[in-house]
Specification:
It contains 9 helices and no strands. The chain has helices at about 25-40, 45-55, 60, 70-80, 90-105, 110-125, 125-155, 165-180, 190-204. The protein is an all-alpha fold and about 200 residues long. The protein has 2 domains: about 10-70, Homeodomain-like (Arc Repressor Mutant, subunit A, Orthogonal Bundle), CATH 1.10.10.60; about 85-204, Tetracycline Repressor, domain 2, CATH 1.10.357.10. Helix 1 crosses helix 2. The protein is elongated.
Length: about 200
């Protein structure tokens, strides 16, 4: 999550016959939402505080989202979907490095490394939020990683009987642990070295 979306997500655009929703207000609310979420966490986040930070009325929020949960899912999804997809580089190492670069870009900003762990922790207490975020954010990203492994199998770079589930966990786990949990800075060559380590582990 590097920034709020440049355009409001489809879920908050004007429905036929509905009120005209100003993009500038939507963007101000989105920015205020992420700042408030990073400051207080999901459990303590209030729509009143978001509206005050955005200098908008609470009614402006409810015209766009019916609840805090739906607002959270819509805005987090909009940022996740806006992130660039790793390119198909034509080789296993290049694909893995591009994938790790995308993950690092999403986790490095200060807002992100406060928000992501909080939402994961809240998901353990809030099954509806967890399910919605998994469907909107986790599953599409995991699907892209699975397709990356499939390409490597098709090119003969990985065995056809590779166990994909632990391989997918391994692709994200070490980098997430370092950046979002330990919050440890990485050396300039860290992603290159991690790429080689992960490839060796997955192919073993």
């Amino acid at each position: 999550m590097t920034s709020t979306p440049a355009q409001p997500p489809a879920s908050v655009r004007r429905a036929p016959g509905g009120p005209v929703l100003q993009d500038s207000v939507t963007e101000a609310i989105a920015t205020a939402f992420f700042e408030e979420l990073a400051s207080t966490g999901y459990a303590r986040l209030s729509l009143e505080a978001v509206a005050e930070r955005a200098r908008a009325g609470k009614a402006a929020i409810y015209r766009r989202w019916p609840s805090k949960r739906e607002m959270t899912v819509a805005l987090v999804t909009a940022v996740a979907v806006a992130a660039p997809h790793p390119a198909d580089t034509g080789m296993r190492r290049g694909d893995v490095l591009m994938f790790l670069t995308e993950v690092a870009d999403a986790l490095l900003p200060p807002l992100a490394y406060r928000i992501v762990p909080d939402l994961l922790a809240e998901g353990a207490r809030n099954p509806e939020l967890r399910r919605a975020l998994f469907e909107a954010v986790r599953d599409p990203r995991r699907g892209r990683a699975a397709r990356m492994l499939d390409r490597a199998v098709e090119r003969g770079e990985l065995p056809a009987d590779i166990d994909c589930e632990p391989a997918l966990d391994l692709l994200v786990g070490p980098l997430y642990w370092r950046l979002a949990v330990l919050r440890t800075p990485t050396a300039p060559d860290h992603l290159d070295r991690l790429t080689d380590t992960l490839i060796a582990a997955i192919a073993a």
